[in-house]
Amino acid sequence: MKKKIQPKMNILRPLSPHLPIYKPQLTSTFPISHRISGAFLATILFFFYLLCLKIGLICFTYENVCQLIFYSSKLILISVEITALALSYHIYNGVRHLLTDFSGFGRKRWK
Amino acid sequence: MATGLVRRALSRVPSVSPAARAIIYRSHASEAEAQQVEPKAKTTSTPKTFQIYRWNPDSTQKPELKDYDIDLKECGPMVLDALIKIKNEIDPSLTFRRSCREGICGSCAMNIDGRNGLACLTKIPSGGPTMVTPLPHMFVIKDLVVDMTNFYNQYKSIEPWLKRKTPAETPAKEILQSKDDRKKLDGMYECILCACCSTSCPSYWWNPESYLGPAALLHANRWIMDSRDEYTKERLDAVNDEFKLYRCHTILNCAKACPKGLNPGMQIQNIKKLELTSS
């Protein structure tokens, strides 16, 4: 009995385009920006914790530290504004998410 | 001026027989017609460019977007009409799935201008070039045809059939269901398994093998909510998995993409709610 040898598929199939071509919609931009703002706020929080609680006032005796704070002082205003934007967006979207998730509990639809 | 002379000549001769007068009138009419200008002299054509994803497994070329120009005046209104016209007249090698051409079979699901939908139900958008690509993040077999085996296996894995522990009340007769219980299935039984929703979900893109996707979960909810099915607890436990159900982060792209107007996101939230309250 002769066995038929199946020809091997040498060519790997490509994946159809997804992120580059899919039109960004309201339903998709809300969750991803929620995640990005959340990650941003987490890093800000982490650096503030390191800066304020861990380092201690001894750091100001170092010249480099004083120079760094002086030269980056202009950036602090804009980064505070961005942090405020991220925080407000994250809170608003979080509340909206909670409300929409639990909006179905009032109705008697489930078994 | 000539017509006026002919008319006056006819009226001055009353003895002309009616048949003869009719012949004269008829020739007079055709002369007037010949002097009319053809209104169809300049036909305006509405050109439209389609950028269609092409890939041939038999050639070593990379996938590309090819441009096709068609005249919208000689084409039906839907994208499927345009694809068929391109296949008939310009490029017969264009490959795509199609069957019913009325939005009930789900074969022609593809991505048109960045949004998933059925080609037979999507009107050709006016304006610049339209991009037609296959369903996102699926393996391409050829041109616009994708490999749906993973999608169908996930549908099979939720066991989409009626399962009972006790036999029917009246044997060999239908299991009865009240109208309210039947209403619970509305919004789920209409699914045609076109895969527009699952392939629009970014969570399904990043975890196609472990996350079941909105379509399979919509059908899972359809069987969970069916009052005639007695394996509700087992169905809920089968889906109650970190990956199978909880990869859904309520992005809700699925509800936007569904060509039948269903809301798989809502059904998934129903399953999550039942998981929370029942077990």
Keywords:
heterodimer, A: 111 residues, mainly alpha, extended, B: alpha+beta, Ubiquitin-like (UB roll), Fumarate Reductase Iron-sulfur Protein, Chain B, domain 2, 5-stranded mixed beta sheet, 7 strands, SuccDH_FuR_B_TM-su (chain A), electron transfer activity (chain A)
Q: What report would you give on this structure?
A:
The complex is a heterodimer of chains A (111) and B (279). Chain A is mostly helical and 111 residues long. Chain A has helices at 26-55, 63-71, 73-101. In chain A, helix 1 crosses helix 3 (73-101). The mean pLDDT of chain A is 83. With 279 residues, chain B is α+β, with helices and mostly antiparallel strands. At the A-B interface, helix 1 and helix 3 of A face helix 9 and helix 10 of B.
What sort of overall outline of chain B do the alpha carbons produce when their principal axes are compared?
Answer: elongated
**In the CATH scheme, what's the topology name of the largest domain in chain B?**
Fumarate Reductase Iron-sulfur Protein, Chain B, domain 2
Class inferred from helices and paired strands of chain A: mainly alpha
Uncertain parts of chain A = none
β-strand number of chain B: 7
What's the shape of chain A?
A: extended
Nearest-integer average pLDDT of chain B: 87
Summarize the structure.
The complex is a heterodimer of chains A (111) and B (279). With 111 residues, chain A is an all-alpha fold.
Fold topology:
The complex is a heterodimer of chains A (111) and B (279).
Chain A: H1 26-55, H2 63-71, H3 73-101
Chain B: H1 2-12, H2 18-34, E1 47-54, E2 64-71, H3 79-90, E3 109-112, E4 115-118, E5 130-133, E6 140-142, E7 145-146, H4 149-157, H5 179-183, H6 202-206, H7 213-224, H8 232-239, H9 253-257, H10 264-278
Parallel strand pairs in B: 1-5
Antiparallel strand pairs in B: 1-2, 3-4, 3-5, 6-7
